[in-house]
Amino acid sequence: MKKKVADFIGKHGLLSREGLHLVALSGGADSVALLLILKDLGYRLEAAHCNFHLRGEESNRDEAFVKKLCQEQGVPLHLIHFDTMEYANLHQVSVEMSARDLRYGYFRQLRQDIGAEKVCVAHHRDDAVETLLMNLMRGSGVHGLTGIRASNGEIVRPLLEVSRQEIEAYLHSIGQDYVMDSTNLVDDVVRNKIRLNVLPLLEQINPNVEENIGKTARFMQESEKVITAAVDEQKRVLIACDKNTETESVSIQKLQQLPSPELFLHEWLSKKGFNTTQVEQLAEHLEGVSGRAFETQDYTLLIDREQLVLAPRKMPMKSVIIPEEGRYRIDEDFCIDVKERKDVSISKSDDCATIDKAKVKFPITVRTVQNGDAFVPFGMTGKKLVSDFLTDRKCSLIEKRNQLVVTDKDNVILWLVGHRTDNRFRVTAQTTKVLQIALVRA
Predict the structure, then answer these.
(1) Backbone torsions φ then ψ of 126, nearest 5 degrees
(2) How far apart are the first and last CA of the chain?
(3) Which residues pair with 326 in a beta bridge?
(4) Average pLDDT, whole number, for the chain?
(5) ω into residue 363 within 30 of 0, thus cis?
(6) Between the N and C ends of the chain, which has fewer C-beta atoms within 10 Å?
(7) Are strands 384-385 and 374-375 parallel, antiparallel or unpaired?
(8) What is the mean pLDDT of residues 299-306?
(9) What does the alpha-carbon distance between residue 438 and residue 14 come to, in Å, rounded to a whole number?
(10) Does residue 396 contact residue 403 with C-beta atoms inside 8 Å?
């Protein structure tokens, strides 16, 4: 058993011999075995125990047990108590998720406080098998079928290739007791149902089912490396980023030439919060009507003519009224600078407009474009809808949504920000005072 764990640690480079490591110690068979094996292997350890106060006297029994064990083993122990139910109610999450958040948050902070290199948790092969089956039932993609990883940043899992049966046999062989969590014996949650009902049934069909599923998870982890490398290269070639608008765009034609457009979309968009159903719908409607949108809490994806455009969702900008010359903040990143210029030269910058001051009626307003907005583009004589002008400029739907205009007291557009001033306010030979309106980074 110890050799198997030692070989696994070495194979994956999980722990250093010189550093201090923190063991998450619940008192159950898995964590007790982890503590004893790592100690016997010569690693320098401290332990941490969380009392979630969810099981009455059982929770206090577990705490007393780990205190006694660590004292016998000469391992420093850190204890913390949580009001898990209050946390769950406050954050509107399940008790299981609350305990997980509290536990890992504490481990990460404690690791920093004591200068430990890694946090060792006692997940084993059976846990990895249960996780894979849970993800399979949820309709997971490739990543979900890789099970549990040997390491995730500072979190490491040295027991991942040994079974629960091996762990219990090891503890029995050395005469070491442990505590039992009674909630693990009740099939009230999905993981317990799989552990208590599904896996025993599968073992009747194939006694080696857990070992074989574990092998499948390892094969999937290797396959994932190949897929990730291939998709990363596809992303590098296909995704065009615009730092000014914070958007990413992909040509639909090039996307459809890939062996699996849906896989590319999943790998690109799942990290942005899009779910499997949204990705499937998008893949089915790549040639759909331009303007269809898919949204998450933080992002919007638009089918915009011949491309997909991804942009962060932003709160609609409130109109900013400018009563007189000066600098005014319009959002977190930009200000509008309004001032008179002494010379009458015309600005050639997209972020700066120069107009005839005598024709401007204050207060002026900065706002997003509205349906029906029209202006007379510089150099023209007739009005044109702002939406049509932007379409001619091949602006994306997201760019149209976020387009700013500057209007005067009568709601007449002075400047389509970043594009064109209104011809009625142009600087002419008769102009004596020029008003400069500039968009500047805050």
Answers:
(1) -65, -40
(2) 61
(3) 338
(4) 91
(5) yes
(6) C
(7) antiparallel
(8) 87
(9) 55
(10) no
- Smallest CA-to-CA distance from 436 within 327, 322, 324, 340 is with 340
pTM of this prediction?
A: 0.68
C-alpha 339/C-alpha 335 separation (Å) is 13
Under 8 Å between Cβ of 43 and 15: yes
> What would you report as the CA-atom Rg of the chain, rounded to the nearest whole angstrom?
31
For 382-407, the pLDDT digits (tens) are 999 999 999 898 887 778 888 999 99
CB 9 within 8 A of CB 17: no
pLDDT digits (tens, 9 = 90+) for 316-337: 678 999 999 999 998 887 899 9
Distance of CA 351 to CAs 159, 176, 251, 334, 437, Å?
59, 73, 28, 11, 8
Cβ-proximal residues to 321 (8 Å cutoff; 6+ apart), any chain: 363, 364, 365
Q: Which two tokens stand for residue 278?
A: 């949204």
Say if CB 216 and CB 132 are below 8 A apart: yes
- What's the pLDDT at 183? 72
Torsion of CA 231, 233, 234, 240, to 10 degrees: 120
- In order, the DSSP letters of 292-350 are -EEE-SSEEEEEETTEEEEEE--PPPPPEEE-SSEEEE-SSSEEEEEEEESS-PPP--T
Q: How far apart are CA 305 and CA 108, in angstroms?
A: 47
Cα–Cα dist 223/143, whole Å: 10
Pair of tokens at residue 34: 């982890």
In angstroms, the Cα distances linking 282 to 161, 172, 287, 292, 400 are 39, 55, 9, 9, 22
Cβ-contact 342, 432 below 8 angstroms? no
Distance between CA atoms of residues 301 and 168, nearest Å: 51
